[in-house]
Automatic annotation (TrEMBL):
<keyword id="KW-0812">Transmembrane</keyword>
<feature type="transmembrane region" description="Helical">
    <location>
        <begin position="169"/>
        <end position="195"/>
    </location>
</feature>
<feature type="transmembrane region" description="Helical">
    <location>
        <begin position="416"/>
        <end position="438"/>
    </location>
</feature>
<keyword id="KW-1133">Transmembrane helix</keyword>
<dbReference type="InterPro" id="IPR036259">
    <property type="entry name" value="MFS_trans_sf"/>
</dbReference>
<feature type="transmembrane region" description="Helical">
    <location>
        <begin position="322"/>
        <end position="339"/>
    </location>
</feature>
<dbReference type="Pfam" id="PF07690">
    <property type="entry name" value="MFS_1"/>
</dbReference>
<dbReference type="GO" id="GO:0022857">
    <property type="term" value="F:transmembrane transporter activity"/>
</dbReference>
<dbReference type="GO" id="GO:0016020">
    <property type="term" value="C:membrane"/>
</dbReference>
<feature type="transmembrane region" description="Helical">
    <location>
        <begin position="483"/>
        <end position="504"/>
    </location>
</feature>
<feature type="transmembrane region" description="Helical">
    <location>
        <begin position="390"/>
        <end position="410"/>
    </location>
</feature>
<feature type="compositionally biased region" description="Basic and acidic residues">
    <location>
        <begin position="1"/>
        <end position="18"/>
    </location>
</feature>
<keyword id="KW-0472">Membrane</keyword>
<feature type="transmembrane region" description="Helical">
    <location>
        <begin position="207"/>
        <end position="228"/>
    </location>
</feature>
<keyword id="KW-0813">Transport</keyword>
<feature type="region of interest" description="Disordered">
    <location>
        <begin position="1"/>
        <end position="21"/>
    </location>
</feature>
<dbReference type="InterPro" id="IPR011701">
    <property type="entry name" value="MFS"/>
</dbReference>
Length: 544
């Protein structure tokens, strides 16, 4: 059920009967069972011109088996393709660290400082486009904006195969960041709002979506191992073939996205989407729409082609109740990024060959994907966010300490130990999916969610920019100073999620006290007439 309060109603009305095993709790027990509440939200949906309002039905019921069938269908038709969209982004976004295992830096007349600058330029432009891209996507629709983004960055990736100097490298890194910035929050909003997963469904599915980060790198690593071996063919470097071929893969996905991204669950008709019939029957559309609105009623308070006006934007950006999660996004991911971003350079500096420096990445990429799903599953299973978020740096900190303690000598034994430790750091239990689910659950409104996804991803990118400056050229190959900095950040990052959890517990206690001061009639009147929106509503608690 939604975390919208039921205090003004008989609690027994919302207790799922143990005798009814074949029906969904959202079918039988939901907020709209009280006519006054259903009437209030129906007016909200009409006033907002919510695109799925014609499927809203407070009296509609369905079975749990039907819901599971529709969920599987949604996963296969929509989630699976969004996985490919993310694959296209990450394949291109991360190909530079594979290209530098070849002679890219030498051929462009660059050193590690220039490489760091290129990464910084990419993150800065990526960051700068997060919010503009999110606002554009909300106005024109993710189904139209995302395909355009994919085609744009595919062209830029292809252009990278023609780089000849440092200036061209910097320019194309900037353009790539502009084209790719905002894609992740755009798709996350698409999954949480346009596609309409419930809060509990979204958590594990974002985890599945983020397995791309491991699997795309496995595929990218194998591609790099092959294409870099083409060095000298037709007088071209291997890294040029790599950029060109990965641009082709991304471009094909971009073309398909014009046809395979529907605007919403009731707007699936189209070429490659079942023609005029679309993907879902009328009953299936009603199941999707009503289960989501019963889980989170305010997912219908905005049309999917409505932009965010200045008033709503100010309210969203000043929603201080979401700032603890932004702070987490800023800091907790820094400790693993230098090892992951510089792993190929580190291995080359330790004496591994170009081929070995690519193939030896596969173990961490497999483990990263496994742990990405595991963390999301654990969060859903335990209904916990704060303590789960500490896992990432509880894992990372011991490996960072071990790297500092290793003797600074190069031989076969210590090189393999350093390799193993960097691989384990790079495999990092990725808490990003469950953090996004946490943010989505606490955003409480579509307008706030559209902005908060962007702001959270921007905080992540700011942290990523900081991470590019930790391993410096003068500190190689052991990066002792950088490791000491990462140890301090990692230790602090273990505490931060606990502080965030404590904040939300305190806010919930305050809301509960204020809510309980109201009589049942006042509670009902508040639920149907308050001007408070999103997380400011007393009848909506925060998850933690």
């Amino acid at each position: 059920m939604s975390d919208t309060r039921k205090s003004s109603l008989d609690k027994d009305e919302y207790k799922v009967s143990e005798e009814v095993s074949d029906t969904s709790s959202l079918s039988d027990n939901h907020i709209f069972q009280q006519p006054e509440v259903a009437q209030y939200w129906s007016k909200v949906y009409e006033d907002a011109n919510y695109e799925n309002r014609h499927r809203f039905d407070p009296n509609f019921t369905w079975t749990a088996q039907e819901e599971k069938k529709v969920l599987r269908k949604t996963d296969m038709r929509i989630l699976s393709f969004q996985w490919l969209v993310f694959f296209a982004l990450d394949l291109v976004r991360q190909n530079l660290k594979r290209a530098v295992s070849d002679n890219l830096l030498q051929e462009l007349g660059m050193d590690q400082t220039a490489y760091n600058n290129g990464n910084t330029i990419f993150f800065v432009t990526f960051l700068a486009m997060e919010l503009p891209s999110g606002l554009i996507s909300k106005k024109v629709g993710a189904d139209k904006w995302v395909p355009f983004q994919i085609m744009a960055w595919s062209i830029v990736c292809a252009a990278q195969s023609g780089m000849t100097n440092k200036a061209g490298f910097y320019a194309l890194r900037a353009m790539l960041g502009v084209c790719q910035g905002g894609l992740i929050p755009d798709v996350l909003l698409y999954l949480s709002y346009y596609v309409s997963y419930t809060s509990s469904e979204l958590n594990i599915r974002v985890g599945l979506w983020y397995t791309v980060l491991g699997i795309s790198q496995i595929i990218g690593t194998l591609l790099a191992a092959g294409f870099i071996e083409l060095r000298g063919l037709n007088g071209l470097s291997g890294w040029r073939y790599l950029f060109a071929f990965e641009a082709l893969i991304s471009g094909v996905i971009g073309i398909l996205s014009f046809f395979l991204m529907p605007a919403g669950p009731t707007q699936t008709a189209g070429i490659l989407r079942g023609g005029k019939k679309g993907w879902f029957t009328e009953r299936e559309e009603k199941i999707i729409v009503n289960k989501v609105l019963r889980d989170t009623p305010n997912k219908g308070d905005l049309n999917n082609r409505d932009g965010i006006n200045w008033t709503n934007f100010k309210k969203a950006i000043s929603d201080y109740d979401l700032w603890p999660i932004y702070l987490l996004g800023l800091i907790v991911y820094i400790p693993y990024q230098p090892s992951q971003n510089y792993i190929t350079l580190i291995l080359r500096q330790l004496g591994f060959s170009t081929f070995e420096s690519n193939v030896l990445l596969i173990p961490y990429q497999v483990l990263f994907s496994v742990m990405c799903i595991g963390v999301s599953w654990l969060s859903k299973r335990t209904k916990e966010h704060g303590f789960i978020s500490t896992i990432a740096n509880v894992w990372t900190l011991p490996m960072l300490v071990a790297l500092v303690c290793l003797p600074q000598v190069q031989n076969s034994y210590y090189n393999w130990v350093r390799y193993a430790l960097n691989i384990l750091i790079s495999a990092f239990p990725y808490i990003h999916p469950q953090m996004i689910a946490w943010l989505s659950e606490n955003s409480k409104s579509v307008g706030s969610r559209a902005v908060s996804f962007c702001l959270y991803n921007m905080s992540y990118q700011i942290g990523s920019i900081a991470a590019t400056r930790i391993f410096t050229d003068e500190d190689k190959p052991y990066y002792t100073k950088g490791l000491y900095a990462l140890i301090g950040i990692s230790a602090f990052s273990i505490l931060l999620p606990i502080f965030a959890k404590g904040y939300y517990i305190a806010r919930n206690r305050w809301k509960t006290r204020e809510w309980n001061k109201l009589t049942p009639d006042q509670q009902l009147e508040y639920s149907t007439s308050t001007t408070d929106i999103g997380s400011k509503r007393l009848d909506m608690l925060f998850t933690h």
